[in-house]
Each structure stands twice: as C-alpha cells, then as structure tokens.
C-alpha cells in the first residue's frame, strides 16, 4: 500500500495511463487531484499543499501565482478520465483479485476481505486476512479458547496448555537435577581414581626403596665374602 500522501503507483492500473495526467511532483496518478490556476498542471493535494506552505505561492511547473485558495478540482473530461481508471485493490499483494474504478477504490478497500487484521485471541498477535479472522480465531489459532465437552469449562484448553507447560518445566527441572547428580558422581569417581593413583605411586615408591635396601644388603654380603 502507498503512503497516505503518495499518489497511486501507475503499475497498479490496468491499461495505459496518460503521462501528462500524472502528478507533477511524484509522477504517480494523483490522489485527491488539484490543478494550478491557469495551465492545468496537476498535482496530488498533499504534495502541492506542502509546496505552497514550504516554498512559495507559485506553481512548481509554470511558476504562475498559486495559493491554496486558487487550486482547482478537475472537472469535465479530466475528472471522468481519472475516476474511470481501473486500479488493483490496495490488498492485491495479499491476494485480492479485484480491479475497480478509481472512484470506487476506497469503498472497496473498506469492505475488502483481504484487509490485514490481528487475531483477537489473547496472546496470539497473528496477522490474518479480515475474511479469515473468524475461522482462524475459532479453529486454527493455538491460543483459541474451546469448551470442554464434559464440564463445559471454557477454560479447559487454556488450563490444559498451562498444565502441559508446567509438566515440561518440571521435566526440565528433573533433567537438570539428574545431570547435576551425574556430574557429582563423575567428580567423586575422578577423586577416587586420583586417590588410587596416589596410593599406587606411594606403593611403587616403597617398593623402589625396599629394592634399593635389598641391593645394599646383597652388596654388603658380597664384600664380606
């Protein structure tokens, strides 16, 4: 969709659009068109109003004197030509296939089923076509509220979702506790392994000392002979 002040993009129109009837500022089909006082130069109302307010009281094309009060609305052939132009709906990109007269565009857009609207279910926030809103809210939205078949409790689905979420949180907490316990066991095993290795090192050192003593005794015995 165009900016509210921008003219209508020429690519939205079916058929050729006369270039001499495009807005002299934005070069699009003029929105709320106005003409300069003397020479029929055409503009979007928003664009020519801004020019007259910010720049000077002259036509930006011919430089003839021009004020907001002396701007003219199209009449006759020009008025009919612009109103009869065939334009695609504002919501064409969302799937609307309709092509309407420019004069009827706003009336069509106000009623178009492809207008984007927000789902009304709390917590959803999904943007859908206006014509799909009811079906989305009642049948497809994951945040929809449905009545329990047995207890008629309209909060049944909401409570079920919350219970499932609580179960997931509890499971995650249990998994974390198990992981912490496993890590603690692994740390204990490593500590035990370190103690065993230290004991083995002590035993080996004692064995080395004993062997050294035995070697000394044997050497002394050999000398005595």
Automatic annotation (TrEMBL):
GO biological process: regulation of canonical NF-kappaB signal transduction
Keyword line: Ligase, Metal-binding, Zinc, Zinc-finger
InterPro entries linked: Znf_RING/FYVE/PHD (IPR013083), Znf_TRAF (IPR001293)
Name this polypeptide is given: E3 ubiquitin- ligase NRDP1
PROSITE patterns for the chain: ZF_TRAF (PS50145)
Keyword Ligase applies: yes
GO molecular function: ligase activity; zinc ion binding
Highest taxon of source: Eukaryota
Organism: Paramuricea clavata (Red gorgonian)
């Amino acid at each position: 969709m165009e900016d509210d002040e921008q003219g209508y993009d020429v690519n939205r129109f079916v058929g050729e659009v006369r270039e001499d009837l495009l807005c002299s500022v934005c070069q699009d089909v003029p929105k709320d068109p106005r003409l300069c006082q003397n020479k029929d130069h055409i503009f979007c109302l928003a664009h020519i109003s801004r020019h007259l307010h910010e720049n000077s009281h002259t036509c930006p094309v011919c430089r003839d004197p021009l004020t907001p009060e002396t701007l003219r609305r199209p009449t006759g052939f020009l008025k009919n030509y612009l109103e009869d132009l065939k334009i695609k709906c504002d919501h064409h990109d969302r799937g609307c296939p309709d092509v309407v007269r420019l004069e009827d565009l706003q009336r069509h857009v106000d009623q178009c089923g492809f207008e984007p609207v927000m789902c009304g279910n709390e917590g959803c926030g999904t943007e859908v076509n206006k014509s799909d809103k009811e079906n989305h809210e009642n049948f497809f939205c994951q945040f929809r509220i449905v009545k329990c078949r047995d207890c008629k409790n309209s909060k049944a689905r909401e409570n079920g979702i919350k219970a499932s979420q609580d179960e997931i949180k509890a499971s995650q907490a249990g998994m974390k506790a198990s992981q912490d316990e496993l890590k603690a066991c692994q740390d204990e095993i490593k500590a035990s392994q370190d103690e065993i290795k230290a004991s083995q090192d002590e035993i080996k050192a004692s064995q080395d000392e004993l062997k050294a003593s035995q070697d000394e005794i044997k050497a002394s015995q050999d000398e005595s002979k």
